[in-house]
Amino acid sequence: MQVPESLMANEVVDQGRRRFLTTTTAVVGGVGVVAAAVPFIKSWEPSAKAKAAGAPVTQSLKKIEPGQQLIVAWRSLPVFIVNRSPAQLAALPKQDGRLVDPGSDGASADQQPKYAQNATRSIKPEWLVMIGICTHLGCVPDYVGEMKAEPFDPNWQGGYYCPCHHSRYDMAGRVYQGVPAPKNMAIPPYHFVDDATVQIGVDAEGNA
């Protein structure tokens, strides 16, 4: 899968990576949790050279609690892995009227695999696996998982906020209306090795 050309301009990637480097090892808590520390499991990670070449990244999900997010690197891009809580999942269909493309009908093949063309944009409803790049200018949005009024949205139901230019996305990475970002965030190729392990960079059929 290739990231859309609009996200690959040098100045855009540089800006996104700068923000990514400050957040790569962070796990941000979701509902009822402001922040939590879930460390990377180094034994799962390929070498830096292999990652730069686009090698798949295998990650354990065992320590990611409901409402929490883990960030891993794939092809030098941040990939958000979120264990969505039941409350976060229940709020998804309620956001459809506020979104640009709620059904991801306008998604191109390199933005969303066929197995993620559903209401949760995922293989398993509770697990969101998504490239964490804003579709406006390539920044890395903040995960704001708690479902409560925020200064940028009094009806916030959890999701992503890009402080650079105020774009907002819901808990499936679907973009809200009236923001600079033009489309939903991209879903990478991935599959579940088992119930507690995900591999990013290749799907269940072996397609990258």
TrEMBL record:
Domain of life the protein comes from: Bacteria
CDD domains noted in UniProt: Rieske_cytochrome_bc1
Catalytic activity entry: a quinol + 2 Fe(III)-[cytochrome c](out) = a quinone + 2 Fe(II)-[cytochrome c](out) + 2 H(+)(out)
Subcellular location: Cell membrane
Membrane topology term: Single-pass membrane protein
Segments crossing the lipid bilayer: 20-41
EC number: 7.1.1.8
Domain Rieske as annotated: residue spans: 94-199
UniProt keyword annotation of Signal present: no
Coiled coil: none
Cofactor(s) this protein cannot do without: [2Fe-2S] cluster
Additional remark text: The Rieske protein is a high potential 2Fe-2S protein.
Subunit structure: The main subunits of complex b-c1 are: cytochrome b, cytochrome c1 and the Rieske protein.
NCBIfam families listed in its UniProt record: Rieske_proteo
The name this protein goes by in its record: Ubiquinol-cytochrome c reductase iron-sulfur subunit
Organism of origin: Dyella flagellata
Top-level taxonomy: Bacteria, Pseudomonadati, Pseudomonadota, Gammaproteobacteria, Lysobacterales
